[in-house]
């Protein structure tokens, strides 16, 4: 498969092709209790029912005013769902459950260290907390409907409380994953134009209390460099009353939330009735250029889509104890820890720390202690736990009925361990392919109705019609064995509305490639380009090969090669940089950096460390490369483009393709010699 730029290398190009696998059927006990066990549901979402089929999802919500138009395509491809409708997302996730289950735990938070008890927060308590914090945001920080509020919060209940408080006010939240650097956070603050930053002084990870306030200072500084001043920084203390950082508080800017909150005790804030199309949140993700993309999600369409898919694919029932062990700082956490599960009134678990500390039995101990019924994680975690604690699950008496995987392709062998050992052969496994942009699941199986196939995510979700196109826009037929670019033919309620502040880029990246007529208002002319390579088997199941663009998916985290390269270029000695993906046993893919030096500079370990440090500073530790190679020159085309495809071939011990057209073909053997000798 080729990609958009000839100098580019894509993950999909270095994907391993595994053979077709056998089906696994769901256990009868699961089918008997499933939310979707009648095949009639497939007819209700048949193509000729589009778009009205999605009314079924929207009807799971409470609306202040019902909508008049299900799908408005007049400004294609800026789709508008449930037009005329009004609702409040916080009301749907909290208030509406007060009548039926005020004393049921809405959330259970499992903190580090391990001897600390889990904290249950009932729906009533959640309602009180959200109201008080919303009052503080409104009256102290001046937040109102439509304002953007950035969070840089770790995995603590204060994060969902802050999300729901913003939603209650109609403000747009933008959570930046806690592991991102202060600089990355500041860039996102400036891009979204947030006047308020909400953070925490510290959090636990691997048994250590990490100073997080330092990142708030860096974020404000970085935002200022982009010409944006942050007026208010609200800081929760991880241990109320006890400051976990030695960073000074900035007068007039920084405030401890636990000092302010007593003034708002008992206050109530009426949920703002928002148009269905009002943005609910921004979620930044990496893309083709250095500038991150703020994916803007709507209130009505998004909430309807995550509620519907949580019901039918996560099979969530109110009396489940549901645990998605992801971070809320990613789309998975927004959709399937917070909004979907709470909208359905279940108990959602969140945890602080990592799966492997203090030992690789931690997740299974939590599952046993809390009686978790439904479990959700990423292949990278599964691979790690399979390696570090292959028998750990057998030591604990939990029983999962349902398990999900998300974020990367899962190898059939790893899938089988998940099914057999983690799921004890009793749980269904639902592989869910989707993206920050899509809001919810795109390719997956209805667990009681469609059999599982290890390594394949499944067919399109209800009402979702994927198609694979080749480079010239011809359909790649199912069963042909050929890979191509996976697209979704139709819009759906969870699709993001635009890239914040960059509508042209939104159109260009996601819709230009296979658009049939730029003036058309017929959705058939606007296939959505997902940016993944995929293969469709004869049974209509899709196997995702990886990204086709300048994104590397490391342990389920999307990293932009341009962002990595521009971070490396901040190091004085560096003249040129190229980031390439390499296959990695545990993390799926890893990043290797290739750099060349300015004339007169000498290669040294200090330069290599400088590149790593720059990447950690600009993006965060998650982006740390596994190798920094200092090479005498980059392989280049005659027009001077760095041939990443050739470099990746060397790093992966794979074919480098045709190099006869390079300006400097001799460099290939030199680099190969240098790199492969050391690997
Ligand atoms: C939800 C999420 C999206 C990219 C996506 C694809 C990869 C996600 C997958 C999968 C194979 C799956 N991806 N789920 N690949 N099988 N089940 O992960 O969003 O962080 O935006 O990443 O992740 O490459 O394009 P996001």
TrEMBL record:
Enzyme's top EC category: ligase
Keyword Acetylation (UniProt): yes
Q: What are the alphabetically sorted keywords of the record?
A: Acetylation, ATP-binding, Ligase, Nucleotide-binding
- A GO molecular-function annotation: acetate-CoA ligase activity
Q: Does the keyword Acetylation apply?
A: yes
EC number(s) stated in the UniProt entry for this protein: 6.2.1.1
Q: Which Pfam families match?
A: ACAS_N, AMP-binding, AMP-binding_C
Q: Which residues form the Acetyl-coenzyme A synthetase N-terminal domain?
A: 50-93
InterPro entries registered for this protein in UniProt: Ac_CoA_lig, ACAS_N, AMP-bd_C, AMP-bd_C_sf, AMP-binding_CS, AMP-dep_synth/lig_dom, ANL_N_sf
Give every AMP-binding enzyme C-terminal domain span: 563-641
Name the Gene Ontology biological process terms.
acetyl-CoA biosynthetic process from acetate
AMP-dependent synthetase/ligase domain: residues covered: 95-496
- What SUPFAM superfamilies does the database record attribute to this sequence? Acetyl-CoA synthetase-like
User: What family is reported?
Assistant: Belongs to the ATP-dependent AMP-binding enzyme family.
**Protein name per UniProt:** Acetate--CoA ligase
Q: Which organism is it from?
A: Actinocatenispora rupis
